[in-house]
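Researcher: We plan to redesign the surface later, but first we want a full-length starting point. Tokens attached.
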């Protein structure tokens, strides 16, 4: 495992895997909706699009041609906390892949004509997301759950912001956030350390220098109380999402214990919610639980899509399972099964250099250091009934649910009363 600061000021974490024939390089900038104000919400994601629109020596088309010429795959994504640009190549093409990736990261030209066209693309992406009811309900629950802090904002931003942004706005934001101390490069796959370092130092020589920008405002201590919000939408199903406050990604011990809890509650086909709502009663096709963890906080979510006439019953079943888990916990057999499932999912995911790269970056950004595969497995193995009980006590509290409903919701008042009553 490699973990060091490059001469250009960027942090490098890397995992050399000689059994691989590929390598994935990701450049992670700490820029996302949490580092934005309401006025520039959506700018991180727009910048992600624009970095592919040309550099000082490549047009947008030439970037695509050069990646195809080396048989690589290049892409990017924006999250609430980070923007990642990555390329996956055959090991013998690694230096060429790094040159392309660092060129678009360090020397984008942000052409004004391309910016106007790309605004249209992003506006279409926003419209597409608004047509995805499960996306809408997740944005709705986050807006209410995180009301008052930067996590309430969407990644895509409001359309009016996108239309208003100028090239100067993008440059000013990048000057603040795309600086060496705010960037982590993560690499996984087959590579020679010396040649990797040499290629990165050369490619990132033009990265913006300067001190680390102030981090986004952490969540203040808040008192959570049960609540519900509704958004009518002309669709067939009602999208149901219930959220609870939980641990952060940086709390390593807690997050593994919470993953065990989530698996038992709604993380697999054998989980309690899946069996109760789908298998036994046929009330939903999709039903699951999922921790959404950030550096300083987290939101534990339960989702189900169901017909309007089943909305109240599905909500009651979710609340029943929450009360049952809080009162009785989980069994030793459920603990063992859940841990094996977590380890299996981890090992299967880490057979991809892209997944390994992402895992390295996430742990570096949230915890300040990368973890080996052996350390990750040991952390799962260390979860015991006491740790699980602690997470159930801290997280599975029906008195603190934030409910969100999107679609043709019947009997809003009944649903609100059901969520807000004492467990």
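Model: Full-length starting sequence:
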């Amino acid at each position: 495992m490699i973990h060091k600061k490059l001469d250009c000021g960027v942090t490098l974490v890397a995992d050399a895997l000689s059994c691989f024939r590929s390598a994935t390089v990701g450049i992670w900038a700490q820029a996302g909706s949490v580092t934005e104000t309401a006025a520039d919400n959506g700018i991180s994601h727009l910048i992600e699009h624009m970095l592919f629109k040309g550099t000082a020596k490549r047009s947008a088309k030439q970037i695509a041609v050069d990646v195809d010429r080396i048989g690589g795959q290049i892409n990017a994504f924006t999250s609430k906390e980070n923007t990642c640009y990555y390329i996956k190549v055959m090991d013998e093409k690694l230096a060429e892949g790094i040159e392309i990736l660092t060129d678009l990261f360090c020397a984008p030209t942000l052409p004004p004509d391309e910016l106007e066209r790309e605004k249209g693309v992003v506006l279409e992406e926003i419209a597409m997301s608004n047509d995805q009811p499960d996306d809408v309900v997740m944005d709705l629950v986050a807006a209410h759950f995180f009301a008052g802090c930067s996590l309430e904002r969407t990644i895509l931003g409001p359309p009016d912001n996108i239309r208003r942004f100028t090239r100067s706005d993008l440059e000013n934001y990048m000057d603040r956030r795309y600086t060496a101390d705010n960037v982590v490069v993560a690499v996984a796959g087959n590579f020679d350390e010396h040649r990797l370092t040499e290629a990165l130092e050369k490619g990132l020589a033009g990265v913006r220098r300067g001190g680390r920008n102030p981090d986004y405002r952490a969540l203040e201590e808040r008192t959570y109380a049960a609540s519900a919000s509704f958004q009518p939408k002309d669709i067939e199903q009602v999208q149901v999402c219930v959220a609870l406050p939980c641990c952060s990604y940086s709390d390593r011990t807690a997050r593994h214990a919470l993953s065990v809890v989530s698996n038992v509650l709604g993380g697999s086909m054998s989980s309690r919610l899946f069996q109760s709502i789908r298998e036994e009663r046929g009330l939903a096709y999709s039903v699951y639980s999922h921790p959404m963890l950030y550096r300083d906080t987290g939101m534990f979510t339960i989702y189900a899509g169901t017909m309007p006439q089943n909305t109240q019953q599905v909500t009651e079943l979710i609340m029943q399972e929450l009360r049952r888990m809080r009162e009785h916990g989980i069994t030793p057999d459920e603990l063992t099964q859940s841990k094996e499932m977590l380890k299996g999912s981890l090992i299967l995911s880490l057979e991809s250099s892209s997944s390994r790269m992402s895992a390295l970056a996430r742990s570096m950004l949230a915890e300040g250091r990368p973890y080996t595969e052996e350390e990750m497995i040991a952390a799962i193995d260390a979860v015991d009934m006491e740790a699980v009980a602690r997470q159930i006590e801290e997280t599975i509290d029906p008195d603190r649910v934030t409910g969100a409903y999107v679609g043709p919701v019947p009997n809003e008042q009944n649903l609100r009363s059901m969520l807000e009553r004492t467990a």
